Description:
This protein has 782 residues and is of the alpha/beta class. It folds into four domains: 16-264, Endonuclease, Chain A, CATH 3.30.870; 270-321; 348-634, P-loop containing nucleotide triphosphate hydrolases (Rossmann fold, 3-Layer(aba) Sandwich); 660-732, no CATH class. Helix 17 links the parallel strand 14 and strand 15 (500-503). InterPro entries: P-loop_NTPase.
Amino acid sequence: MTSTKTTPQPRDLHKIHVLHDGQPAELGIKEIFDPEKYSQLIAMTGAVTPDFINTYLPDFVKVEIGLGARQTATGYTATETITKDALATAMLNAANKEAAKLFHALTSQMQLNAVSGLLKLDISPTQAVHSRFYLLSNPTTEQTRVVLGSVNLTEDSFDPAHNRFEEALIFDNHPLYESLNNHFKVDMLPVMQPYFTNELLNAAEKQLKALKKDKDADASQVVILSNEETDRIAQVELTNLLVNDVQRQLDKELVDPELPLGLRNVTVNYATEKDEAERAIEQREMILKLEKEAVSPRAAHPKLRERAQINKRVVEAFEQAVTPEDLAVEKKYTTFLYDRPLERNIARNTTGLYTPNDTGTYPLPFGKLATVSEIREGLHQIDAVIQGYAKFVVDYTPEYGRRFFEAILYGFAAPFLWEIRTKASLNPEDGNDVPNFLILGATAGSGKSTLLRIINQLTWNTANSMIDFGTIYDTDTPQRKAKTVQALELYMKTGSSYPVLIDEIEPYFFQQPQYSRHLVVDTMNQLVNSPKPIAPLIGTTNYNGGFSMARETARRTYYLQLDKVIDDQQKSEATKYIYNVRKILNNTLFKDFVVRMANLLEDDQTPWRTYNKETGLLDFLAMPRRIFKEYYQMVDQPLPDYFTDGIFDDFRESSRNRWAKLYLTQESDFVYRKENDSLLFDISKLNSFNGFTQDAVEEYRNSLPIEICVDGINGKTGKFIEIKAGAFYHWLGINNPHMALPAGVTVHETYDVAETPRVPSAIEHGQVSKPKKKGFWARLFG
């Protein structure tokens, strides 16, 4: 007798959980959405399918459906929720012709309902809607029903065979109905726009009228629009979303008036988002492969492999995900200091900072109050460092020495910069005033690398944390530049708040926006929008008189210029001196400093928004300065002459000096334009033939402030740059020679710059017919 082996069935779980007036109930879709009992439906849902509409909604007299987001977006600011979530989704729906596809899939009856206004679908292009509720009513009987839960208007939501848990909570004739109905009409409808737009419905109505006139047409009145027509509709809808719908929300004051600025900046950190999306795809591929390989490929009745086999494949997948070369690069960052403000306990002097123990098995609290004698010794160590520069640097001045102290102060404050940023910012944009990048623009031989090691010793009691930018990857590594920047980003985003110390950053990083913008701008945008411990970067780069940064990078970077060198004749003595100084350095003062900083961060009365009266810059290091002032008071010592009282503006000063020298040596090249009170300069003259470096044009262009250019950024572009004369001379600190000139007298020959006549194209002349772009939407969006 042959026995038949039955396949065991999965346990019958109660996946679709329905409560009707508080009691468990077995109700299907037709019973929940009962058109015999209720004639009208208002829905706020995350998804709706044409099958659901065609099957369950035809007998309702009136249906209005609001379409919200399918899933919650995380990590977005208020503006990004509009630009990157709601509006982007609405525009993608239009580009993908989703409304037209849904309309086509409706029965002719439901298409007619949509054209006549009995079936309405709405979306919100400026708000992310995560609401899920359904309101059924019958005006004749005055019966109402409210359905709350996770279900959408899809059959899958109510099918337990789809392996998903769903909730449907039903309340009949409940006060909730009036509350939610009012919420829908008063709060939601004003921000809604028709999903079936006028363009779509007009095209459908036009086709229906044509069908009605055609005596040979079938009695069926189904609407099927051509690809060309839906392409046209998609283009109009995309335009209307931006031109009409967003503007209407602005006019009604339903969105922040700064939304246009958010639209302009929507791609600011797109490179990072793109990298994350690509990484997510790679991770998903790895996971799906592991799923597939967890089962024997040839077994008649597939079953899971043994644990050892699966574990082997998991280990191999992790090893393949990171190459040995990349793994070696990751391990170059070895200093970890974690900032956990919620663990801070001021009463016990617990700072909230933690560092791994020697074996890396558990975290240890970091920070300890020092004695007065230890504080005196710590200040002596810093003094010995700066006195070394004072003794051996050519043309040293106390003002110059302040930059060394400022760099050390930044290093001390670095672990807390992300917290300072949140407390000093009234809005996200203010966060850029607390830069996460300190760049020491230093001349070769200025002692910049030594300073980086000293900062490491004073804060971590080691000099081994410094990473050489040029050796992160070998010189023959494919895509070395991009991978180097990716490595820096990895170091900064390990979760540690101890600064990443990078020596000898190569010029291309600053000169080529795809690198500095990706790291500096995108990282700062992440920080200001989603505050979290991302390690600051302290780096050095060679300053040769031609260093420059793009404006958007400079805006987010603290730049200190160390352009004086150690005297060659004293090199031997200087080396011995600094060697002996470094032997006595330790981080006792830093451990005390973090305790005092933690106390200030917990004190709601701490004034974080302190501005420099002369420069107008936010002094984000004001509280660290205050702690050091207290140190000098505690040890009864006056403030040293290198003690800094505010933020430096070296990049702007360096830029001013560059242009001042250019003007004073080539004054005749700056041509005065009287009618605009402006100066015209041919920037292409800054070429190697005239003795300038290859990158001089962009260096000078980047260092020219936008605010002194005619027509803003447009004044900086192209061959001729146009500068506001008065603002330019004021910036340089030079008397304006064009003010109050006697009649008929000019300093330079003046002339008008006429716009170059635009030559009409062959298409405009009618010589060539403009080709029609076919299939664009089909190629791009399917």
